[in-house]
Write a structure and sequence with these properties.
Layout lengths: L1 E2 L2 H26 L3 H11 L3 H22 L16 E2 L1 H17 L4 H9 L3 H18 L9 H5 L1 H4 L4 E2 L6 H6 L4 H21 L2 H4 L2 H23 L1 E4 L2 E4 H6 L1 H4 L21 H12 L9 H19 L11 H20 L6 H6 L5 H27 L5 H11 L14
Parallel strand pairs: 1-4
Antiparallel strand pairs: 2-3, 4-5
Helix pairs in contact: 1-5, 1-12, 1-16, 2-3, 2-19, 3-10, 3-12, 4-17, 4-19, 5-6, 5-16, 6-15, 6-17, 15-16, 19-20
């Protein structure tokens, strides 16, 4: 898709992103696709329906990226964020994912679910969005009058030294097949992973009868593919030379007649797909700038699109309901959860959608680590909360935590403090 001017190409990208996100928001609302709910159903009831829907979305996204890379349409090596970076920040992936998993449990949903709930009339989620946005913004951007960010102050000195420098990209294809065989390796591994996930997903007869779960997983996966496609395939015709939007921005001074219309950064116009924590921070920055058009990008339109899509379905289905905090404890839990999601989502470089689906679709090791850490953090928090609710005063935090770890077979049964429930 080639356009004669940057403005036309940018407009098409932004509106395409909004349209795809609109579909995602409506379908996620309609089907109740929810990653936190997936873990909750699995841990508390043994129901794997929504977990299989999540895995289906991953399988579809992996197939999409494998095909798009083979066709030369997508270059996931230069993705934003850099999922395949040759620096594996495993400690940040694990800690960030763990904190995010705790946070999304306390705040009743991940970043995507927060946006969907806003569209459905949940005012609590607006507060969650605002807190996540502020935290995410200052995790990356310096405080006013300072050159320090939350990340540089709290995490960089002790986490970044643990990073592992690799000789090439960190995706499974490059690691197992080397630089020269990375392309073929990605096809083999991506195909095998997607096939295995599809077998696991459709092995369940109950899942095969679950229309909402199948539609939810399939559409979310296709939306991820759509994001990769539009952010990569759109080009600007610069005197016969077709350039990506990111490359055009990086050479703006040589190609454009003036600075008018220049976006704030070339990085946010690289190949990418849906993720929601950093874009929430970008949304806060956009609002604080007084709606500066230079700050418009893929992430901002993704946030707006999901909210509008969910709102549209809520109105059509007459399910729109205003909801507010039940009490101070409810507010406190959501606020703490939002802080943890803002920190964890940026630290891990993504959320349940941004890393566990979009990132995993690139076969990046960091994304797989983040996925596992999110599920672990969410499951552990649910078990601890459940034991404290059942046993009330008898269940101190330490007793509930130890018992939860025993249930998850991470500690020997002899250490159990509470009877299993």
């Amino acid at each position: 898709m080639a356009f004669e001017s940057f403005a036309e190409a940018q407009s098409f990208l932004l509106w395409s992103t909004f349209g795809i996100a609109l579909v995602m928001g409506a379908v996620v609302n309609k089907t109740n696709f929810c990653t936190m709910g997936a873990v909750s159903d699995w841990v508390n009831m043994g129901d794997t329906g929504r977990m299989r829907a999540w895995l289906l979305a991953i399988a579809v996204a992996v197939i999409g990226v494998v095909v798009l890379e083979k066709l030369g349409i997508v270059d996931a090596n230069s993705a934003f964020p850099p999922y395949r970076a040759n620096q594996l920040v495993w400690a940040e992936n694990l800690l960030g994912g763990f904190l995010f998993g705790i946070g999304m449990t306390l705040a009743s949903g991940c970043g995507n679910k927060t946006l969907v709930r806003i569209g459905g009339g949940n005012l609590k989620s607006i507060v969650v969005l605002a807190i996540i946005g502020v935290i995410a913004w200052f995790m990356i951007n310096p405080f006013p009058g300072s050159d320090q960010t939350l990340f540089s102050l709290l995490f960089y000195p002790w986490l970044r030294p643990a990073a592992v420098e690799l000789s090439g990209h960190q995706d499974l294809g490059a690691l197992l097949f080397g630089a020269e065989g990375a392309g073929s390796g990605r096809m083999v591994i991506g195909g095998a992973l997607a096939l295995a996930l599809l077998v696991i997903v459709f092995k369940s007869a109950e899942f095969r009868r679950s229309g909402n779960n199948i539609v939810g997983g399939l559409v979310v996966g296709l939306c991820i593919i759509g994001g990769w496609y539009v952010s990569s395939a759109i080009k600007v015709d610069a005197d016969g030379d077709l350039m990506s939007l990111g490359n055009y921005i990086s050479q703006w001074d040589f190609l454009a007649d003036s600075s008018e219309g220049k976006p704030a950064g070339a990085g946010t116009y690289g190949p990418q797909s849906f993720t929601f924590i950093n874009p929430m921070g970008q949304t806060v920055g956009y609002l604080a700038s007084g709606f500066e058009s230079a700050m418009l990008n893929f992430g901002l339109l993704a946030v707006a699109g999901v909210i509008c899509g969910s709102l549209l379905w809520s109105l059509l289905s007459r399910s729109f309901r205003i909801e507010w905090f039940v009490n101070a404890g409810d507010f406190f839990n959501h606020a703490i959860g939002a802080v943890l999601m803002g920190i964890g989502g940026v630290l891990a470089m993504g959320c349940t959608i941004g890393q566990a689906i979009t990132g995993v679709s690139t076969l990046a090791v960091g994304s797989l680590l983040t996925f596992a850490a999110i599920v672990f953090g969410c499951a552990l928090t649910m078990k601890v909360s459940y034991y404290k609710m059942v046993y009330e005063e008898e269940a101190t935090f330490s007793k509930a935590l130890i018992t939860a770890l025993v249930d998850m077979r991470l500690l020997p049964g002899a250490l159990r403090k509470l009877e299993a429930v």
